[in-house]
Amino acid sequence: MNKHPYDIIKSPVVTEKAGEAKDRANKVTFCVDPRANKIEIKKAVEQVFKVKVERVNVLNVPGKPKRLGRHAGRRPDWKKAIVTLAEGSTIEVFDMV
After folding, report:
1. Looking at residue 97, what is its pLDDT?
2. Which of 81, 85, 80 is nearest to 54 (CA)?
């Protein structure tokens, strides 16, 4: 089954830690489909942003327990991909933030 690149890459992760990794090591962070593997993530990033990807690291982030009054619940689990770009490659979306 072929997946569309926009189905694999859900959104960029814009945090202080992700911004520092981008400046220091040319690594960008995305929230991705939990069923996607490293190869699919690499192809999707290269196709969408027209960059050369050197390495992809993935981790499953468990959702935090949250409360609203007496009602307890959980945030959903999600998958994070840390993509190392090749030397000289940048993604403009992250440069504007």
Report:
1. 54
2. 85
> What CA–CA distance (Å, rounded) separates 9 from 44?
7
Q: Give the pLDDT of residue 52.
A: 96
pLDDT averaged per 10 residues, the chain (length 97)? 86 93 94 96 96 97 96 97 93 67
CATH architecture type of domain 5-87: 2-Layer Sandwich (3.30)
- Number of Cβ within 10 Å of residue 71's Cβ equals 7
Report the alpha-carbon distance of residue 40 to residue 3 in Å, rounded. 8
Which two three-digit tokens encode residue 87? 């030397």
Tell me which residue of 85, 77, 30 sits closest to 58, measured CA to CA. 30
Q: Is 34 left (phi over 0), alpha (psi -120 to 50) or beta?
A: alpha
